[in-house]
Specification:
Helix content: 40-55%
Strand content: 15-25%
Radius of gyration: 22 Å
Order of helices and strands: HEHHEEEEEHEHHEHEEEHHHHHEHEH
Oligomer: single chain
Number of strands: 13
CATH topology of the largest domain: Nucleotidyltransferase, domain 5
Distance between the termini: 39 Å
Mean pLDDT: 85
CATH superfamily of the largest domain: ATPase, nucleotide binding domain
CATH architecture of the largest domain: 2-Layer Sandwich
Shape: globular
Number of domains: 3
């Protein structure tokens, strides 16, 4: 796919767009930037100079000679700015600090929010952020902001983050944390953050649309289009967990039935495993919500080791996931999908194989183009890294931002 992107010379976002082109290119010359953007050489020279003056971009040698003067090459200066990403969960908090290139330079893991009051926990979060800055010896003025990733539906208010605990649904996370740490705070759901992290760290150009399927307790889908996260009318794009994959399936708490989450999410896999008393005892499964992550990880690890019973459970889940992904691929004409999140950490290869097989055989556009399906970088920090890149993008490349919309719960509904 072409990376050419026409940028209007009078646009206030020109500098932002040029910085994004340099980010996605890795190394690039001024002439190449002019060709990709459609701007004049004079405009590129002016914009690049301002980026160099602000230490965001650095010259990094010369390209091969083509007979004339060798072209100087530009790249992002990774040490110019930093951002913090926080993955906010009931079981654990994961903080990462990234540089401008998205490289992780520091990390902290602490207990999750559990059932604690948000007013108490937000003060702890602010204290832990200060601890990270002191340990890494990073000047606060070089930190562009804090990104927060969390699971759940956006219930409307711009400063709210929907989590599992009712009190957190109405707590102004963004506004309160900003007042405590003195830095801009932005937030999004974990699937959107994972997609944005893949975009930034993977140096994916803004012209390459893709999706990231995220699995933790449930499923979410982050969709990147034109270098920004797709939002929808109420900022709730990507509720793939409530895509119906069996119209006669079990009732779902959302009010529908046969949703992907009820048939394939970790809780469903654990329930099936516990029904086999021998397997449950062998793996030490508990079945409580507080142990959901550990129980599912035990099943996934056993499947990755080749335990036939666990392989069957994960493959059953993967078939439902593949069916949901096929519908998304057909609906959106996707040609690239990443799998991210802790749910894919141990048995992700089984899910990748199932999705590749079904999409390769049944995608409506299979004769036109293939669909690349890959695991994102493994580990539990995907959404945290994405949250940090959310802060980087919010401040440094605002032209790619699509603002979250707010729809109040008491707004009139139409059918």
């Amino acid at each position: 796919m072409s990376t050419k992107r026409r940028i209007g010379p009078s646009s206030e976002n020109t500098r932002s767009a040029i910085l994004d082109l340099i980010r996605s290119s890795g190394t690039v010359s001024r002439i190449e930037l002019a060709e990709m953007s459609g701007l004049t050489a004079t405009s590129i020279t002016r914009v690049v100079k301002s980026l160099i003056d602000d230490r965001l971009v650095a010259e990094t040698g010369f390209g091969d000679s083509t007979g004339g003067k060798r072209r100087s090459l530009l790249q992002i200066n990774p040490h110019a700015r930093y951002a913090v990403g926080l993955s906010l969960g009931d079981a654990r908090l994961t903080y990462v600090v990234t540089d401008l290139a998205g490289n992780v330079v520091g990390q902290l893991v602490s207990p999750g929010i559990g059932q604690a009051a948000p007013g108490t926990e937000i003060v702890r979060i602010a204290d832990e952020l200060e601890q990270i800055f002191r340990q890494l010896d990073i000047p606060t003025e070089d930190v562009v902001g804090v990104g927060v990733a969390g699971a759940g539906l956006d219930l409307g208010a711009g400063d709210r983050l929907s989590l599992t605990a009712d009190e957190w649904d109405a707590f102004p996370v963004q506004e309160t944390l900003e007042s405590l740490v003195g830095l801009p705070v932005v937030r999004d759901n974990d699937a959107a953050c994972a997609a944005l992290g893949q975009f930034w760290v993977g140096r994916i150009p803004a012209t390459q649309d893709f999706a990231t399927l995220y699995m933790a307790r449930g499923f979410g889908l982050g969709l990147m289009t034109g270098g920004g996260v797709s939002r929808g009318s109420s900022s709730n794009v990507g509720e793939i967990g409530h895509l119906v994959v069996d119209i006669d399936g079990p009732d779902c708490w959302c009010g529908s039935r046969g949703c992907l989450e009820m048939l394939a999410a970790p809780r469903a896999v654990i329930a099936q495993a516990i029904a086999d008393g021998g397997l449950a005892a062998e793996l030490g499964l508990v079945g409580d919500d507080e142990r959901l992550r550990q129980d599912f990880d035990a099943i996934a690890r056993a499947a990755s080791r080749g335990d036939d019973r666990c392989v069957a459970l994960i493959e059953r889940s993967a078939r439902y996931v593949a069916a949901a992904v096929l519908s998304v691929v057909n609906l959106l004409d996707l040609d690239r999908l990443y799998l991210a999140g802790p749910g894919f950490a141990d048995a992700g290869a089984i899910y990748v194989a199932a999705i590749r097989d079904l999409v390769g055989r049944a995608a409506r556009t299979r004769a036109v183009h293939g669909v690349t399906v890959e695991l994102s970088d493994p580990g539990l920090d995907t959404s945290a890294v994405g949250a940090a890149t959310l802060a980087l993008q919010h401040v440094l490349t605002p032209h790619t931002r699509i603002e979250r919309t707010s729809v109040r719960a008491d707004s009139p509904a139409t059918v």
